[in-house]
Design brief:
Layout lengths: L1 E6 L2 E11 L2 H4 L3 H17 L1 H6 L1 H7 L14 H4 L13 H20 L2 E6 L6 H13 L5 E6 L12 H13 L9 H7 L4 H18 L2 H12 L8 H17 L3 H12 L5 H17 L8 H15 L5 H21 L3 H18 L6 H17 L3 H14 L4 H13 L3 H14 L4 H13 L3 H14 L6 H11 L3 H14 L4 H13 L3 H14 L4 H13 L3 H13 L8 H14 L3 H14 L4 H8 L1
Helix pairs in contact: 4-6, 6-7, 8-9, 9-10, 10-11, 10-12, 11-12, 12-13, 12-14, 13-14, 14-15, 14-16, 15-16, 16-17, 16-18, 17-18, 18-19, 19-20, 20-21, 20-22, 21-22, 22-23, 23-24, 24-25, 24-26, 25-26, 26-27, 26-28, 27-28, 28-29, 28-30, 29-30, 30-31, 31-32
């Protein structure tokens, strides 16, 4: 089908494709999958490199294209049995998938011509599909893609099939060998069929697949329906799988109360020590990470995780015990970290590592082992053992070079150590190996800013916000760079936009203070810095900015106090340290403390030997 429309004073003949979005057909990406089934065959002919570039997202959104789209990027988990894939994607993974698909569609249509999509049943779409549609509309230019939401002429008729006919229809769909229908239509028909056991199994297949893709809304809906049909006595494995998947998804969505109802009911329906230990661990994590900080309870978490540890310690098979007990010990480590006891946390992680090394074959449970070593690296860093932390990150990345998040963590450590170029290399590897997400661009922006590349830093922050307009961390940094570029009106607009959504954000308040200071509105600048520090007294940047403001307004003694506090909060190897030392030296000189000023300048000169301003200060 084609239709004409005018774009930029020329007539364009659009291709038109109509897709349904009802999640009861093919699951969370019913519409997205249908769109890709139209575009990917075309791309394989016209631009196969685009398909290869976006292999992960295409295979996730359109799983029935997997035989045509080779997996190019495969972290360790992709090579392991399903039981070993213990990493549960965060809810934001669907946004990463959506951004990847949007970039694929944009780049393909720029070569092959515009497309109009007529979308049916949008109201029945899964949240993942609705998110994808929103990202496509936001990121693909309208001259390339339009998406019109259509209403059906009449209401869809209720199913007239008999239960036996529902069984037959489900059998027919399964015989096709496709994944999509098994995420939507098959469980829908099975639920209306004659056998609740088979219906529960169909829902279990769907929740397991959707959980791996991070489609938590879908898992929560399908899991709750499946649990209403599952029998823990007749089919305990199916029932437990639904309990586990549903509770994990509900917790990830911030619906902890519903998750806990599922888990508490499950406690009354099983005597399995293994499953009781998993319930205890999950409840411990809810108490530790609850989306509402006021409801976090580390004492309760400690009680639950100790219950899990006690139960897992009784498991008779060494390999199973090493994994399950190690998992719970790792959870205990998180709780100890939150309690401010990183040394204890490290001890528990090491105990889990020792179990794995002693009782598991070298080639078994590789994902579990990598998670433990990554957590050990984080704890080393927290304890100031940066050399040990870096060695752990090197080992983790060598073992799993296709997992992007580890590059972010190592890059952050390298940046802290002053190895900015190496940090940038890690951030760029994360960009290459993973789905599109804002963190590597945000972090690279910080490195570029430290290196004096303000234009590059601004471009990275703009892209981070394009990927996720809700990525609040980027807004104050972006405003600060606009100030540094003397683009004050844009900086103020950026601050106002951010503060409209998060009025107590200390970083935005600090950026606003920089705008006001640059404009000569010193009282308003001080008020902004004061408000930032009232919200976060550990914010080194706000102390530093207020110190500079005090110096420039004739109060060098106050400047010394604020800059000293900023230095206390800043790592010696941080890129900002030489500038802080130089500024404090100037303030110390102004109050007649020349020996201390020179000590600061000498220290700054060692950290930044090529800085001409520091050298001039030493020469005076």
């Amino acid at each position: 089908m084609h239709r004409d429309r005018v774009v930029r004073n020329r007539v364009v003949r659009n291709r038109v494709v109509r897709v349904g979005a009802d999640r009861r057909l093919r699951g969370p990406y019913t519409a997205g999958g249908a769109l890709l089934h139209t575009l990917v065959p075309e791309a394989l002919d016209a631009a196969p490199e685009l398909v290869a570039e976006h292999d992960i997202e295409i295979r996730a959104v359109a799983p029935d294209l997997r035989d045509r789209v080779r997996a190019r990027r495969r972290p360790i988990a992709a090579h392991r049995p399903r039981a070993e894939r213990i990493l549960v994607p965060a809810p934001r993974r669907t946004l990463r998938l959506a951004n990847g698909i949007a970039e694929f569609v944009r780049d393909l249509l720029a070569r092959t011509g515009p497309l109009a999509v007529e979308l049916l049943d949008h109201a029945e779409a899964d949240p993942a599909d609705r998110e994808l549609v929103a990202v496509l509309r936001r990121r693909v230019p309208p001259e390339l893609l339009t998406i019109d939401t259509l209403r059906r002429a009449g209401a869809r008729a209720a199913s007239a099939l008999t239960p036996r006919e529902h069984d037959l229809r489900a059998d027919e769909l399964i015989a096709q060998g496709l994944i999509g229908p098994r995420l939507g239509a098959v469980p829908w028909h099975r639920e209306r069929g004659t056998d609740p056991r088979r219906a529960a199994e169909a829902y279990r297949f769907a929740t397991e697949w959707c959980l791996e893709q991070g489609c938590h809304h879908s898992v929560a809906e399908l899991g709750l329906r499946g649990l209403s049909l599952a029998d823990p006595d007749a089919a305990p494995e199916t029932w437990w799988g639904l309990v586990h998947d549903t509770a994990i998804a509900l917790g990830a969505l911030g619906r902890e109360d519903e998750a806990e109802r599922v888990l508490m009911e499950a406690r009354g329906r099983t005597t399995s020590p293994l499953w009781h230990s998993t319930i205890a661990y999950t409840l411990a994590m809810h108490a530790t990470r609850h989306h509402d900080p006021a409801r976090r309870d580390l004492d309760a978490a400690l009680g639950w995780v100790n219950t899990g540890i006690a139960l897992c310690g009784l498991l008779p098979e060494p390999g199973e015990r090493a994994v399950k007990l190690g998992f719970d010990l790792n959870g205990r480590a998180l709780i100890e970290t939150r309690r401010g006891r990183p040394d204890e946390a490290l001890r528990f992680v090491q105990d889990a590592i020792d179990l794995a090394e002693r009782d598991l074959p070298d080639d078994a449970q590789l994902v579990h082992k990598m998670v433990l070593r990554a957590n050990k690296a984080q704890l080393y860093d927290l304890l100031g053992r940066t050399a040990d932390a870096l060695a752990e990150w090197d080992a983790v990345i060598a073992a799993d070079p296709e997992y992007p998040d580890y590059y972010i963590d190592r890059g952050n450590l390298l940046y802290k150590l002053g190895r900015v170029a190496d940090a940038v290399a890690d951030y760029e590897t994360a960009i290459e190996t993973g789905l599109p997400f804002p963190e590597p661009y945000f972090n690279r922006a910080q490195a570029r800013f430290a290196a004096g590349d303000l234009t590059g830093a601004l471009a990275d922050l703009d892209h981070a916000l394009e990927l996720d307009p809700g990525f609040a961390e980027a807004r104050p940094n972006r405003a600060g760079i606009l100030v540094a570029l003397d683009r004050y009106d844009e900086a103020r607009a950026a601050c106002d936009e951010g503060l409209a959504g998060t009025p107590d954000d200390p970083y935005l308040r600090c950026a606003l203070g920089q705008v006001e200071a640059a404009a000569g509105r010193h009282l308003k600048a001080r008020e902004a810095f004061d408000r930032a520090l009232a919200q976060d007294a550990s914010m080194a940047t706000a102390w530093a900015c207020r110190g500079v403001l005090s110096f420039e307004t004739g109060d060098p003694a106050a400047a010394v106090r604020d800059l000293s506090r900023a230095l206390e909060l800043t790592d010696e190897a941080a890129a900002e340290t030489p500038a802080l030392l130089f500024n404090r030296a100037m303030a110390l000189r102004a109050v007649g403390r020349e020996d201390e000023a020179r000590a600061d300048l000498e220290r700054a000169g060692k950290l930044a030997p090529g800085d001409a301003e520091i050298q001039r200060g030493l020469a005076e």
